[in-house]
Each structure stands twice: as C-alpha cells, then as structure tokens.
Amino acid sequence: MREQLQNIYGIHRQALYSLALTITQCQAMAEDAVHDAFLRMCSGRTTPSGDLVSYLFACVRNAALDQRRKHALQKNGSVNSVLGSSSPLVTWTDQSADSPLNVAVSSERSRILAETLNTLDEASREIVIMKVYGDLTFQEIGQATGTSPKTVESRYRRILTILDAKLRHQMGDQ
C-alpha cells in the first residue's frame, strides 16, 4: 500500500495540500494535516474503504478539520478563532510562462482567481479544489465529503456559475 500512497501523493500532493490549506487557513497546519493523514494510512491505523484517492482526500479533509479544531481550542476555546480573512487560503501560479509579460499576466490572473475562490464558503472551495486541482470525479468527491455525487455535481455547476460571474465582474473592474 505504501507504493500506492507514494503514487497518489506524487499525483495529488498540491491538491491535497490546497484542500488542507482551504480548511485550516494556515500553511503549517495544512502541512501537518497532510502529514497526519499519510502517517495514519502508512501506520495501518486506518483501513481504506472504496476508492483510495477519494479516501485519502477524506482523510486529509478530516485531519485538517482536526488541526483547525485543535488550534482553535488551544487559542481560546472557539473553532471560529482560526477563521480570519488575513491569510490567503489558496494561491496558484503558472510556472510555464516564459516572457516577463506572460509571467505578469499569469500572476495577475492567479491572484484574481485565488481572491475569487477565497470569497466562496469552505464547502464550495473544497469541491472546486478536489474537482479542478485534484481531478477527482463527482463520485470520488462525494465519497470524500460524505455527500451524494449528484449533490456534488449540482453544487459544482452552481459554483462555476458564481465564479464566472465574480471573475467577469473583477476582470471588468481592471
């Protein structure tokens, strides 16, 4: 199973980290959540059920929620204490651009996309990250979140409509 986990990590590490970062809003806690999930899987303390990729996304999601709760309770006993708007939730950059103009345009698009994604509620961001960056199917996202695939699909389509409107508005403002 370790080899399978290595392969999954190699393919999905950025999406797993982004999911954890969306939930924790803290780089260190997100890293700890991904680490904890893989440690549990490698130690045999958890037994996968169903698709291993969606199970791993569920494990990272749960570990991130645990990190957030633990940190909030250590801070001042409230889960809401970690939810602030000061830290960016997710940032992406396109490293394939070659000219300075392409790099600048790509960076600006990434910034606008990250800001727009960060305006969504947590559940919506999770779905987008798992679908777009994790390349999971609606079935796999449903397994990871405990939601029916049809519900995930309809939420995803609604989220895309919301993101499209927000992005068009932001691009029009500049």
Quick structural summary:
The protein is mainly alpha-helical. It is 74% helix and 0% strand.
Give structural notes.
The protein has 174 residues and is mainly α. It has one domain. It has seven helices and no strands. The chain has helices at residues 2-24, 27-43, 52-76, 100-117, 122-133, 138-145, 149-173. The longest helix has 25 residues, at 52-76. The model is unreliable at 77-97 (pLDDT under 50).
Instruction: Give the amount of beta strand, in percent.
Output: under 5%
Instruction: Specify the biggest β-sheet.
Output: none
Q: Helix content range of the residues, please?
A: over 70%
Contiguous helical run count: 7
Head-to-tail CA distance between termini: 49 Å
What string gives the helices and strands in order? HHHHHHH
How many whole angstroms does the radius of gyration measure?
Answer: 17 Å
Number of domains: 1
Mean pLDDT: 80
The 3D shape can be described as: globular
* Uncertain parts: 77-97
**Strand segment tally:** 0
Global structural class: mainly alpha
Please describe the structure with a list of short key phrases separated by commas or semicolons.
mainly alpha, 7 helices, 74% helix, 0% strand
Secondary structure elements and their pairing?
Layout: H1 2-24, H2 27-43, H3 52-76, H4 100-117, H5 122-133, H6 138-145, H7 149-173
Helix pairs in contact: 1-2, 1-3, 1-5, 2-3, 3-6, 4-7, 5-7, 6-7
